[in-house]
Write a structure and sequence with these properties.
alpha/beta; Rossmann fold; 2 domains; 25% strand; Cof-type HAD-IIB family hydrolase; EC 3.1.3.-; Cof
Length: 266
């Protein structure tokens, strides 16, 4: 099959556990790109922390960021917002009260910026790892900006409890809550997911879903893997993700993206 669009999750999929790209993976992606395929990074990251990965691959083009809430085009002229699914800060007021009371770290994101109310060394280390520089404000509620993502960062046990309680209380209302990693919960517009963003991009490029390959590692990748003609999970994915995939490749620490591209594209 000649895949015309390759959608790649970043953390836990494209990057190894040291948040690095291997030279072999870079070379293989460039080869697939040179054969005419669009390479699209589909990530929970913001545009500013996704762009360095795209540049390291020697590419420019469209990035699906914030787990599908913001699609951004990047080239030598800069970054341009293509599409976003946003919501307002009053819509998350009950959740803000909860995380402040419980002392859970959180941030809120517009398409291009991230805002926090406090930060410790543990959080600084996490943001540094993901190439993020959040803006410190007194009260995010006073920003008055459209928001694309509200993220909690804590230990898995705490987030398990949050997930259960917010589900029981439907605290997120008409918004969508997803577990985007062991240490993260994201709240976004109900329309925002990587699958919907990929569908919109494919329509713009006039690419059929059967001509798309998507590779991911977590539950926030399921919609894009389902939309693609071939959805692949890396070996380090949870069992539920691997069961939903069409195929499984090697882990992110064993160049799973490289091996999948060689097998299905080269």
């Amino acid at each position: 099959m000649n895949y015309r669009l390759i959608a790649l999750d970043v953390d836990g999929t494209l990057l190894n556990d040291d948040h690095e790209l291997t030279e072999q993976t870079i070379e293989t992606i460039q080869e697939v790109h040179d054969q005419g395929a669009h390479i699209v990074l589909c990530t929970g990251r913001a545009p500013d922390s996704t762009l360095p990965i795209l540049q390291q691959l020697g590419l420019e083009g469209t990035m699906i960021t914030h787990n599908g809430a913001a699609t951004v085009h990047a080239d030598e002229r800069g970054k341009t917002l293509v599409n976003e699914f946003s919501f307002t800060l009053p819509e998350i007021a009950p959740m803000l009260d909860y995380v402040r009371t419980e002392g859970i770290h959180f941030d809120v994101c517009t398409s291009f910026n991230m805002y926090i109310e406090r930060i410790g060394e543990y959080e600084k280390e996490m943001y540094t790892k993901f190439l993020v520089s959040p803006k410190l404000v007194t009260d995010v509620s006073e920003l008055g900006l459209p928001i694309v993502k509200f993220t909690l960062f804590s230990n898995p046990e705490m987030l398990d409890r949050v997930q259960q309680e917010w589900d029981e209380q439907q605290l997120y209302g008409h918004l969508r809550m997803i577990r985007s990693g062991d240490l993260f919960i994201d709240v976004m517009s109900a329309k925002a997911n990587k699958g919907n963003a990929l569908k919109a991009l494919a329509a713009t490029l006039e690419i059929d879903p059967s001509e798309i390959m998507a590779i991911g590692n977590y539950y926030n990748d399921l919609e894009m893997m389902a939309f693609a003609g071939l959805g692949i999970a890396v070996e380090n994915s949870p069992d539920g993700v691997k069961e939903a995939a069409d195929a499984v490749t090697a882990s992110n620490n064993d160049e799973g993206v490289h091996k999948a591209l060689v097998k299905y594209c080269l």
